[in-house]
Amino acid sequence: MTNFIRRTITGAFIVICVLGGLWLHPVSFFIIIAVMIAGTQHEYYNMVRGTGIRPQTIAGIIAGFIIYLISTTVAAGWLPGNTFLLLIPLVTFVMVAELFRKVERPFDSLAHTFFSILYTAAPFSLLPFAAFGHTGLEPLIPMNGVVFSPGIPVGFFLLLWTNDTGAYLVGSAIGKHRLFERISPKKTWEGFIGGLLLTLLVARLIGGWLGVADTTGWLIIAVIISIAGTAGDLLESMLKRSLSLKDSGTILPGHGGFLDRFDSVVVSFPLVYLYIAISA
What is the mean pLDDT of the chain? Predict the structure, then answer.
């Protein structure tokens, strides 16, 4: 099986699972994002362990989940915003726990433990705020008493993957001018422009169906996704180069790991959400 076919099959599986989970029901929405957070954090910690640093893997993943859980309950209106104050004792516990671990580089351990949370868990934890309390695209199975629309997350991932696909196909076909050769030799300006144009086209087609924002708004979101998503991809490539790794994992054949597949989200979605919040 060629890498292209393997990549295509895996990509289709990811699209079905992620979009299906986000769109089906608020509970499946919660579960699919929790899996993304746990998967990306676990891979990050495994990558760092290869350098001899021992981050608090279990504590970090639990902390990431707690942040996501609080975000979901606050976004759904079940708990007040000051519930985030519970993160103060959580952060304190993780720092104090390092005193009882016999590691050679404790502050490197703490730095990577917390950076994983900032790098992956925090951006993904914004997704509930883009779904709960919004109207527009209805979930396939509504939840009584909950105002919920997966329109923004579904549209975001559709455009994100459109950009990735366009950049990959155009770059593979006619790419000659390197976008950022020092970090990612395979990325080209032709691929970037191809991804951007295809993303703008799809945004124009789906904007009216998704609602939430008008067509112009979705075109702006498409531009943000193309630029910031590419930056997120380059950041993860920089991380892998600094650790002398080709992929973040092997769980997704043809795509590598969770971080390889969702690296664009951590930079692009916070900016997309910021635009939506400001323009609302």
Answer: 91
